[in-house]
Amino acid sequence: MLLDQxxxxxxxxxxxxxxxxxxxxxxxxxxxxxxxxxxxIVISYFITGELKMAFSIGSIEVFSKILLYYVHERIWERxxxxxxxxxxxxxxxxxx
Length: 96
Hints:
The structure is a single chain. It contains three helices and no strands. By secondary structure, it is mainly α. The longest helix has 42 residues. It is elongated. The termini are far apart.
């Protein structure tokens, strides 16, 4: 129950127009990586035919891609926020 309330609060936080919290970015990164890692393990197994090798590849890839996704998400959010601020600036100015 407590976790549910915390997650609901974190995901419904109002931080301006369409801005995700850092917590939400981390949660998205983990859920996406779980799905991506399962995909990598299955593909690795079909290619190598070895379950141990498939899990080895999947276990290495999961950590590197969580980090890469988080960095990508935060950079993307920074550019989105700057573009949105720039659009607001333009719409507030009155043409002469």
